[in-house]
Design goal:
By secondary structure, the protein is an alpha+beta fold. Helices cover 33% and strands 26% of the residues. The protein folds into two domains: 98 residues; 175 residues, 3-Layer(aba) Sandwich (Aminopeptidase), CATH 3.40.630. The protein has ten helices and twelve strands.
């Protein structure tokens, strides 16, 4: 186990995340606070293919990039941290299978994958509608405006009785925005992309993605659903995908799905699923103590 230095950073950059969302540099940075952890000596390389990150409330997450056969150490670590793995870890308790929804963008924009009506409705018309309604999409973001929109979006979401407050990521999307606009240098570089949509000169939608190789990862996607046009979310979605495709991005990972409604939103276009595994902590740790691998 070593704290991050220039060598371990290079080692991390060479690891293959197999396209899995939670193992992307953008998710590690914005969801799991990798760079902030490195700055505070709360992120480590447990070995050449395993990353440990301390996040909040003395909670830790471990990311295993390669197959691991020695489960004995992991059983102990699972008492202190949630373990994420690209491969199944036989012998660990509480296995959960996560499915990322992934687009091959070449297939998304291949007309042969649609009949005439669906091609017009899903691909052609959204761009005409965006132009007709004067939607302006910027690649930068005023974080003060972003926070106002985010807080209103959270407030609106909590009015929905089907939203589970316990698991709802209240601050995650705003953290993604702050990381994307930050000009501070990072130990681990992340290529963030910002899409900020304005309607009638008002910020109405924000999308944050990260790019790694030829794959983009969806990190934050939220906005005005209370008085903006109802088509806005879906039409901005395809606009962003086309923009990335024209920049040479071939794959787009929408992230994991946890309910039917979310999966329905993400599967409007040709897609496939990418499997990874999560092993939650088997027992709570004392709030006053950091996990022992720090």
């Amino acid at each position: 186990m070593i704290l991050f230095d220039s060598k371990s950073v290079q080692n991390l950059l060479q690891l293959d995340n197999k396209g899995v969302h939670n193992f992307s540099l953008g998710a590690l940075d914005s969801y799991f606070r990798l760079n902030k952890g490195i700055a505070k000596n709360k992120a480590v390389m447990l070995n050449e293919y395993t990353v440990g990150c301390y996040t909040v409330a003395n909670h830790a997450s471990i990311f295993i990039f390669k197959p691991e056969k020695d489960i004995s150490i992991l059983r102990d670590l699972q008492k202190k941290a949630t373990i994420f793995s690209i491969y199944p870890l036989e012998g660990l308790e509480k296995k959960r299978v996560w499915q990322d929804v992934v687009y091959n963008l070449g297939k998304v924009f291949d007309r042969s994958n649609y009949d005439k009506k669906k091609w017009h409705h899903k691909i052609t018309y959204p761009f005409k509608w965006i132009e007709k309604n004067g939607i302006k999409i910027k690649r930068d973001l005023d974080i003060v405006e972003g926070k106002i929109l985010h807080d209103k979006w959270v407030e609106d979401k909590f009015k929905d009785p089907t939203v589970h407050r316990i698991i709802f990521p209240v601050g995650r999307y705003l953290r993604c925005c702050k990381e994307a606009v930050s000009m501070q240098s990072r130990y681990v570089p992340v290529d963030y992309r910002i899409y900020a949509a304005h309607f009638n000169d008002k910020l109405v939608w924000i999308r944050i993605v990260s790019v790694q190789g030829n794959t983009a990862y969806d990190l934050a996607n939220f906005g005005n659903k209370w008085d903006a046009p109802s088509q806005l979310s879906n039409y901005l979605n395809i606009w962003g995908l086309k923009d990335l495709y024209e920049q040479g991005i071939t794959t787009f990972n929408c992230g994991p799905t946890f309910d039917k409604g979310l999966k329905g939103y993400k599967t409007h276009y040709p897609y496939y699923e990418l499997t990874s595994y999560v092993y939650p902590r088997v027992k709570e740790v004392k709030k006053s103590a950091l996990p022992t691998f720090f």
